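Recall that a protein's primary structure is simply its ordered list of amino acids. Everything else, from secondary elements to tertiary packing, is in principle encoded there. The following example makes that idea concrete.
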Amino acid sequence: MAAADPSVDPGASIPIESRAGFDQIRYANCWEDAAVLCEALQPRPGMRILSIASAGDNALALAAEGAEVVAVDLSMAQLACLELRRAAIRELEHEELLAFLGVRPAADRLSTYARLAASLPPESRAFWAERLGLVAAGVIHAGRFENYFRLFRTRILPLIHTRARVEALLAARSAGEREAFYGEAWDNLRWRLLFRLFFSRFVMGRLGRDPEFFRFVRGSVAERILARARYAVTALPPAENPFLQFILRGNFAPSLPRYLEPERFRAVREGVERLTCVRGAIEDVAAAWAGGGYDGFNLSDIFEYMGPPLCREVYGRLLALARPGARIAYWNMLAPRQCPPELVARVRSVGDVASALFRRDRAFFYSAFVLEEAC
């Protein structure tokens, strides 16, 4: 399927909410590395950060560092994920939290949910009341993207490698040993063929992400992700990568996302009181909740869903709300995006920091991490 040309594509100026549905849980977890994000934005007391909500993991991680965070999303489903996490963090102890969310086994999550429901905002409570089966199964497993990885793990991966070999890939090894294992034991023809098929634009667009999310992507989706997957299991230690462990084992084991690490639990619990959740387009919410402006922006990968005209408009509106020195962080997965040329005089690239952080980024499917600073 040929990629659309943004210069002639009539959808280049149409917002993503008019081209894709947002009524389901697309992401039950944030698939961006909070360690990279926190080092990039350097959240601390006194800072004000605007963040894409997604499932809430990274907004919670930022708030745990002392910053005030305005978390925004187009999707009520995604905000409901964040609101339920916030209620659970307030009310449950750490091991109870892991069990309720689905990281650990639990006999009866619905009885725990009954304790939390009254503290949820009405819209989130109504959302979960219609999806108690997802709560019972553990909400970190409830997303379309997570189901896509489940299909890979249960239907595709067994055709390529045994369970023992998967565990061997995730074992602690030196960088040289990881490279040798990948080349000698993992990287066979079946792996390359089935990986390219399952992570193709066509399959991912129908089972994982919405096809509209690929509208401005050019070139082979699967080839880029395959190269990044190799990097993740050779240059970086899989034994310390919660994203890889979830994809290949079906859960965060033993590594946890930053907001669930036991040593951060107290700070995360305190941070939920500095978190504001708002539904809407990020540029509209940013203006409505601007206060005195923002010191940081966690923009996920929103720009690659936009054609250049809309990207320029949204970036400009956010930049107008940035305090001097505010950092703007976002990822490119498949469509290259950076500060629009018309705005570069008002922005300084922090490319050296971004490149160093990207080399350590455990959420391996992104092709670039961008960090810019308002002048």
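The chain is about 45% helix and 10% strand. The beta strands are 48-52, 68-73, 275-279, 294-298, 322-332, 347-349, 368-374.
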